[in-house]
Amino acid sequence: MSFQNPYNQSYALQATETLESEACIAKPIEAQRRTFLKGLSASAIALSAMSAHNGSALAQTANRPPNQPESKPMFFTLPDLPYAHDALQPYMSKETLEYHHDKHHLAYVTNGNNLLKGTEWEGKSLEDIVKGSFGKNAGLFNNAGQHYNHLHFWNWMKPNGGGAIPGKLEKAIIDGIGSVDKMKEEFIQAGVTQFGSGWCWLAVKDGKVIVAKSANGESPLVTGAKPILGCDVWEHSYYIDYRNRRPDYLKAFIENLVNWAYVEEMYEAAIK
Ligand code: MN3
What we know:
The protein contains 10 helices and 3 strands, in the order αααααααβββααα. It is mostly helical. It has 2 domains: 11-155, Helix Hairpins (Orthogonal Bundle); 167-270, minor pseudopilin epsh fold (3-Layer(bab) Sandwich). The protein has a 3-stranded antiparallel beta sheet with strand order 2-1-3. A hairpin with a 2-residue loop joins strand 1 and strand 2 (208-215). Helix 7 (180-193) packs antiparallel against helix 9 (246-257). 41% of the residues are buried. Bound molecules: manganese (III) ion. Residues 100, 104, 150, 232, 234, 236-237 line the site of manganese (III) ion.
């Protein structure tokens, strides 16, 4: 096993963490197929994923030895982080991002591609795979769901994040939740009270901004809402930097890491 978490011995592995440790085992066969997504918008992620998809299809065809059956190109690809691994310090360390992006997210990509093969969702969009496989194909859902969540998670953060919320989004938050302070308080509380692995969210449901939480690889997508901000509360996201202090991690995330411009883009797309 290539992944060695020095803290594994210091805390009990919960049942929901099994997924996490299993995901670490997968070998990084997709590492060469990364695509550069610096500064991309939410909608551009989908387009870029498709162009990476097509690019790899071409490369695969060109490199295929004669008389070998044509294999389908991998659908899920791991984008590079939109900033350097050390750019979020001191709130999120280089080491955390090296494990979290380079190993954990890569494992979801690799496993997701393997589990997608031969299913009815091959060729569908990522959102359709996530929504369609929920409750029907747990293995595929877990990996596709986590791929979707992490694609956005990297963009929901930025160096020198936090700060002022763009006006239209701020108004929607106040209309939906009451105030910006209340939103922050409820968002942190959702993350703190998510038992075991999961995520806390801001989402748009019926045109209104709400706070939500979900287990494992689930997201508001599976409840008919649109996620606009999510924070990963799996231990792999904070244990190196914060150990068991999940509330401190959530506070640092909302105050110092959030890329509110990206949240606003997702809000605009969600209310269309
Ligand atoms: Mn994660």
